[in-house]
Amino acid sequence: MKRKENSGPTKEEMREIALFNNLRFLRAPATISKEDAWLQLMGRLSENRTVATTIFTRSLTFRALLAAATIAIFLVSYYFIALSGSITLTTGNGQMVTAYLPDSSVVYLNSGTTIRYNTKHWNDRREIKLEGEAFFKVKAGRRFSVITSESVTSVLGTSFNVYARANEVKVSCITGKVLVMSKSSGESKLLLPGYKTKVLKGARVQREKTNIDLEAKWVEGKFYFQQESIGRVLEEIERQYNIKIEYKGNTNRTYTGFFTNNDLPSALDLVCIPMQLRYKRVNAITIQVY
């Protein structure tokens, strides 16, 4: 059904006009970030906007309002991004992401990982905060730093892997040189290709040789372990398959081997059989290991 030319705007149009009028009052509350405030605004737009199922003629005035509202939205969005420059990337369980940084450096994020960095100051300070695990391929340039709860890892241009979970940090150098410093003690270790280090709060920084061909194989979905606690191995299976594992045994038993993230029964067999463990499915998302 067509609208009459002289009839007033519909309820949907009135909502859009009201949202447009409210744009001039847009302000991020003190308790949340500007980015979150913008997302809330967009959420309100989504909730109040419906898809038209009939074709009708809009008045010139209403079209002008819509155009002005669109321009205002883009201006406010640009303002928020330009103001802070803060970027946060997070992967959930069962997810992996490849991220490209402003200088064309590349970061591969493992499951259950968060990185934070600022694009506004990137040219002066290449700095990333990491929680989880990530593999970095850094383009040569100014100092590039990865900050975790327990360490600061600095390079100029190289490739390396950082694991930072549960107050433990492990850094492996694949190419170039990597300097790792403990935040609690200030002790530093320089790593060359084929070496890795472990940083624990209150402990000496350890450095040892490693197999660089296996250190970052997780990027390909292959996870290798050398004398790793069974508890950590099962935690990695949980992350890769987005499941819950119930295990009441000795979590300090060590495991050497590997699993892949493309077949859960095979992964469980590869870990459990050498450890003389069994497993059974409790429900759709829970596995019991005993």
Automatic annotation (TrEMBL):
What InterPro entries would the database entry show?
FecR, FecR_C, Ferrdict_sens_TM
Tell me where in this chain the FecR protein domain is found.
Answer: 88-178
Q: Origin, by domain of life?
A: Bacteria
Give the record's keywords alphabetically. Answer: Membrane, Transmembrane, Transmembrane helix
Stretches assigned to the Protein FecR C-terminal domain: 222-286
Single GO molecular-function term?
A: sigma factor antagonist activity
The transmembrane residues are 60-81
Query: What's the protein here called?
Result: FecR family protein
Q: What is the lineage of its organism?
A: Bacteria, Pseudomonadati, Bacteroidota, Bacteroidia, Bacteroidales
